[in-house]
Amino acid sequence: MARSGELGELLGGWRGAVETAVPIVAFTAGWVAGGQSIALGAGLAVLGAAGVAAWRVRQHKRPVGTVVSLLVVILGAIVALRTGRAEDFFLVRLLTNAASALAWAGSILVRWPFLGLVVGTLLGQKGRWRRDPGLLRAYQRASWIWVLQYLVRLAVFVPLWWAGKTLWLATAQAVLTWPLVAACLAGSWWVLRRALPDGHPGIRHPQEVSQRGTPESDRLTRS
Hints:
- The chain is mainly α.
- It has one domain.
- It has helices spanning 4-10, 13-33, 38-58, 63-83, 91-109, 114-122, 133-162, 166-195, 216-222.
- Helix 1 packs across helix 8 (166-195) and helix 3 (38-58) packs antiparallel against helix 4 (63-83).
- The relative contact order is 0.13.
- Residues 217-223 have low confidence and may be disordered.
- Residues 202-223 are annotated as: Disordered.
- Keywords: Membrane, Transmembrane, Transmembrane helix.
């Protein structure tokens, strides 16, 4: 079975967290340096996000995720400029965290857990992992850790946004990104490993179950 570090690399690793923090740091730096200038902060944030996007394109990394990340920053900049509230730069991120929590929870309930979809796709398994009841159940349980991650973020970020604490909000978003993701990776890995049945070969080797309820590998061996 893959180790938690390998699972982290599959899901983006620390580089993805750093890339996410770049526009946040750029906005805060511009806002402070410009005497609380939202325009300067928004401009630097968009430039930072565009730079990250260009680097991702050159590295051939997740084109859809690259576009979404850039759009989030652009929308955040537009919202802050329209409302005149610096903290509203983070409003779109708050909404995406809430939407992500709902989406991950929904994926678990309909038996298409996002953790399985992401890891299974990256491992080239297509839908084979879903035909392994033990692996499917393990992915469902481990995916709840990711739901919890988004809820923790909302519990920290929403009060800060409501109180208009822009610097604290920016600091929390930048600081909590990688530590929280790392904790989520470790927690979901621990749950995933504990939830797999005894003797299961691991996430890289899903066991497809025949109509009789016997793993295909065991049935072929006995035949």
